[in-house]
Design goal:
This protein has about 600 residues and is α/β, with parallel strands linked by helices. It is globular and about 80 Å long. Helix 3 crosses helix 4, helix 5 runs parallel beside helix 6 and helix 7 runs parallel beside helix 8. The protein has eight helices and 33 strands. The strands form eight sheets. It has an eight-stranded parallel beta barrel, surrounded by five helices. A six-stranded antiparallel beta sheet has the order 3-2-4-9-6-7, with helices on one face. A hairpin with a 2-residue loop joins strand 18 and strand 19. The structure holds (2S,3S,4S,5R)-3,4,5-trihydroxy-6-oxo-oxane-2-carboxylic acid. (2S,3S,4S,5R)-3,4,5-trihydroxy-6-oxo-oxane-2-carboxylic acid binds next to loops.
Length: about 600
């Protein structure tokens, strides 16, 4: 029996039991939020099922009256041992860990259920159930019928339910599982909390019979006077005209789709360009047949030349910070627009023009807020540390997550970098795996830059070198380094030099040190604010000496929960490398970095 089946039998089995389409990749709908339909957010009934009892009997065979049936006993003698209606509730969107103390460390299955009415819709209308994300994998049933499964806890997916809805009392059941698993993405070990649940919004979405499923409308890669992209229709039976209109930029063009429902386009236009200083967004309307979708889109170019990164043709230094998708002030997954604005507001206060949204695709509120607030974004999939590089299902999973991430944020001007991996030790199998992702990302999105957070190796007496062979495939070399924390003491920064095997811009994607807010000592006392502040000063001085460094996103904006951080009285289950504690208290190092970023913004390096 393979590990996959031993450790997480349920989705595999549910797939085998209920449909030949096990692990079907249910593609999300673009522009879903603006469509008519109804929100299914709110209180869902839940059953915590650590032994996976809702699906299997004691022989691991399908059990009678599985929870997905969501049906009362058929007679007074019928044995049914669950009842969603009398079970407790959890809020959606939200992680389960921070909603109930007994679920803080929970890893396993929880069944979610909610009932909803669906008024009859006009003839020809189609309906979809769209999930913003389910962490980490989900199997979905509507009225007892299995719709499919999705794996990957941070990207959206949808199932078509046209013709399957009842006017009243539809039963929607989702089996969500967050068991860690060696062949998953991420795998067994991460330095962040394994939040589970229906962590993002769920919606019933209506579309016309022929509808716009996806589109990208962005500047051509290096031409700010041309807008290029594609539109993909769903349901089209033949060539169909599609109109893209940007009234604010006096642009309107009509193209015709090919037999597969896809059209590419490129046309001249001169929009005012989006930048951190001027995050201008235009209303864009795309129309095809009876369908019309709207979005707010910014236009900018992003390129590299030698070791420079150029935004709208001009060199830019990325004054960044890394952050997790964890809500300021309460912990747990950030879910709302307010959560996103609070986190990114802190980054603005720090003087940033750039954020690294680590270590997985954050919710769409984050990238939309970044668009509005003028923060460039590094976005990544959780290909982190050790991954089953030789497993083809693992690669397929990573490719799907990357594809779903790129599709969702195709129109976010803020997003300039797709990252395919974080600190993945170099082996042939790993580099082959990551090269496949790089090729996918280039094919799916020729307009953005590709990167990965790479490791480094000693070179000479006082040198470190970025010599990862993957560097040849990337546009920007991400560099995680912990000189002064895991690697010597802060004074080591004073004499260290950096080099790279590839003549490309370097973005220092991580450096940092833990400090407990309010803990004081001298600059050599671990976990004191003084140690962290001193490390930041020395790191900044060191990085200033390396001309190829074109940006940085130190680790990290806010302290975050991590089961790898047990030190009592200091960590207590939190990674304390934040410049800000989770309650909003700023540490000394916040001021050090803010002052450095002010100086950089004023033009001195
Ligand atoms: C890293 C990881 C990050 C950790 C950080 C740390 O290199 O990329 O996920 O949280 O170090 O604090 O050790």
């Amino acid at each position: 029996m393979s590990l996959r089946v031993k450790i997480w039998p349920l989705v595999a089995l549910a797939g085998a039991l209920c449909s030949a389409r096990a692990f079907a990749a249910p593609t999300a709908l673009g522009f879903a939020d603006g469509r008519s339909g109804q929100s299914l957010d709110g209180a869902w009934h839940v059953i915590v099922d650590p032994y996976d009892n809702g699906l299997l009997d004691y022989r691991n065979q399908p059990r009678p009256n599985g929870y997905f049936e969501d049906a009362p006993p058929k007679s007074k003698s019928d044995l049914v041992e669950y009842d969603f209606a009398r079970s407790p509730t959890l809020e959606v969107p939200g992680d389960w860990n921070t909603q109930r103390p007994d679920l803080l460390y929970y890893e396993g299955t929880i069944w979610y259920e909610r009932r909803f009415d669906a008024a009859r819709s006009a003839n020809g209308t189609r309906q979809f159930l769209q999930f913003g994300a389910a962490a980490a994998r989900a199997t979905v049933w509507l009225n007892g019928r299995r719709l499919g499964a999705h794996e990957g806890g941070f990207t959206p997916f949808a199932f078509e339910v046209t013709g399957q809805l009842r006017p009243q009392g539809n039963s929607l059941v989702v089996m969500v599982n967050n068991t860690r698993w060696p062949e998953a993405i991420p795998a067994m070990n991460t330095d962040w909390w394994n939040y589970g649940g229906l962590t993002r919004s769920v919606r019933l979405v209506e579309t016309p019979a022929v509808f716009i499923r996806a589109a990208r409308v962005q500047c051509a890669r290096s031409d700010a006077h041309r807008i290029a992209g594609f539109v993909a229709l769903d349901g089209a039976r033949g060539p169909t005209p599609v109109t893209i209109a940007i009234p604010g930029a006096d642009a309107r063009v009509t193209v015709t789709t090919d037999a597969s429902g896809r059209a590419t386009f490129e046309f001249a236009a001169s929009p005012a360009l989006w930048s951190p200083e001027s995050p201008k967004l235009y209303d864009v309307t795309i129309t095809a047949g009876g369908d019309s979708v709207h979005d707010q889109i910014g236009f900018r170019t992003i390129e590299t030349a030698g070791t420079e990164i150029r935004l709208n043709g001009r060199p830019i230094f990325l004054r960044g910070i890394s952050l997790h998708e964890e809500a300021l002030g309460r912990g747990g997954r950030a879910t709302s627009r307010a959560d996103a604005e609070a986190l990114l507001g802190l980054a603005k206060e720090l003087g940033c023009n750039f954020v690294r949204l680590a270590h997985y695709p954050h919710n769409e509120e984050m990238t939309r807020a970044a668009d509005r607030m003028g923060l460039l974004v590094w976005s990544e999939i959780p290909v982190y540390w050790t991954i089953a590089w030789n497993d083809e299902n693992t690669l397929a999973n990573a490719r799907r997550q990357l594809g779903e991430e790129i599709a969702r944020d195709a129109n976010r001007a803020a997003v300039i970098l797709w990252s395919v991996g974080n600190e993945t030790p170099v082996t042939e199998a790993r580099t082959r795996f990551l090269r496949t992702l790089v090729a996918d990302a280039r094919a799916a999105d020729p307009t953005r830059l590709l990167t990965a957070a790479l490791e480094h190796h000693p070179s000479g007496a006082h040198g470190e070198r970025i010599d990862d062979p993957l560097g040849a495939d990337l546009d920007v070399l991400g560099l995680n380094e912990y000189v002064g924390w895991y690697d010597g003491l802060p004074a080591k920064c004073d004499t260290l030099g950096w080099s790279a095997a590839h003549d490309k811009p370097i973005v220092v994607s991580e450096f940092g040190a833990d400090a407990r807010a309010g803990m004081h000592g001298d600059a050599l006392t671990r976990f004191s604010e003084e140690y962290q502040a001193d490390l930041y000063r020395r790191q900044l001085a060191m990085l200033r000496r390396v001309p190829a460094i074109r940006g940085m996103s130190p680790w990290i904006l806010v302290d975050f929960r991590s089961p790898r951080r047990p030190l009592p009285g200091v960590q207590d289950g939190w990674n304390r490398k934040g410049l800000v504690a989770n309650d909003g208290t700023k540490k000394q190092a916040f001021g050090v970095l803010r002052d450095a970023y002010r100086a950089l913004a004023a033009g001195s390096r």
